Amino acid sequence: MSSDEEDALLNEDKDQAQIKKELSQMSFADLQKLKEKLGTKVYNATMFGAKKSKLIKFKRENKNRPREESSKRQVTRFREVVPVKKKEPRDPRFDSLCGTYDEKAFKNAYSFLSEIKQNDLKSLKKELQTEEDPKQIKKIKYLIQRLENQIREEKKKSEKEMKQKEEKQEILSAIRSGEKPKYKKKSEKRLTNLVSQYEDLKNSGKLIKHIQRIRKKNLKKDRVQLENSISE
Fold first, then answer.
1. CA–CA dist 147, 120 (Å, integer)
2. Nearest Cα to 79, choosing from 93, 90, 91, 69?
3. Does the pLDDT of residue 168 top 80, yes or no?
4. 21, 83, 162, 209: which has the fewest C-beta neighbours closer than 10 Å?
5. Distance CA 84, CA 11 (A)
6. Higher pLDDT, 96 or 165
7. Rounded CA separation 86/80 (Å)
8. 174, 180 in Cβ contact below 8 A?
9. How far apart are CA 93 and CA 98, in angstroms?
10. pLDDT value, residue 6
11. Contact 196, 160 (CB under 8 A)
12. C-beta separation of 148 from 121 below 8 A
């Protein structure tokens, strides 16, 4: 604090003491009239002195330290103290970060699943022979049917891929030997598939059931067509 500021404060204190001395010699009625004339705020400031608010400025010794805040200042309730990164779910099927799908590599990596399905099918068939609860029997039959369908579809798919691979190899061998490659038509492929399907059904003993199912399907289709033609 400079010397001029100190002198100003001393003069202010002297004036305040002089005013208080003069007011102390006045009667209560005169003081009441003075209070009504000046107002309560000015009167209190004259008698007791004005309250001086002191603003404290906090300084950091080191710029890397957190700033000290006054406890008298209210902090916002929704202040984000630590930023949290929003979690976004990722689907590995459509995420480029998980790489591209390679069907051949997938089959090689999870080829053991077919063996597990075969073992599960055997254990379910054994369990079915000893089970007596009707509800449990129904559940086991459903699981057996589902596993058999999965195994059958996987077998069909693998056989189809093997045939496609053999056709490609025949075409490549014909090109290498200088011969004209023979491409099979769709009708020929369809006929070959029907023959292989017939052989599979015959060997598995399900040919009769398959024929009956096709007949029912065709009868239903013919009935619907007949009803539509009559309604028209």
1. 8
2. 69
3. yes
4. 83
5. 58
6. 165
7. 14
8. yes
9. 8
10. 45
11. no
12. yes
Q: Which residues contact 97 (CB under 8 A, 6 or more apart)?
A: 90
User: Is pTM beyond 0.90 here?
Assistant: no
Long-range contacts, 78-86 (Cβ 8 Å, 24+): none
Structure confidence by residue, pLDDT tens digits, 54-80: 555 556 677 777 777 667 766 666 666
Instruction: Please identify which residue in the block is written with the tokens 């710029």.
Output: 63
Rounded-to-integer distance, Cα 54 and Cα 140, Å: 84
Which tokens hold the place of 131?
A: 């089970």
Retrieve residue 212's tokens: 């009956």
pLDDT of residue 17: 67
Q: Which two tokens stand for residue 92?
A: 């590995």
- Give the model's confidence band at 9: pLDDT under 50 very low, under 70 low, under 90 confident, else very high: very low
Whole-number Cα distances in Å, 110 to 34, 99, 102, 104: 100, 17, 12, 10
Q: Which residues contact 101 (CB under 8 A, 6 or more apart)?
A: 93
Are the C-beta atoms of residues 34 and 43 closer than 8 Å to each other?
yes
Range list of H helices, the chain: 3-24, 28-38, 40-48, 103-109, 112-130, 134-176, 186-204, 207-231
What is the spatial distance between Cα 147 and Cα 141, in angstroms, rounded to a whole number?
Answer: 10
Cα(219)–Cα(208) distance, integer angstroms: 17
pLDDT band for position 23 (cuts 50, 70, 90): low
CA distance 125 to 148: 11
Q: Is the pLDDT of residue 8 over 70?
A: no
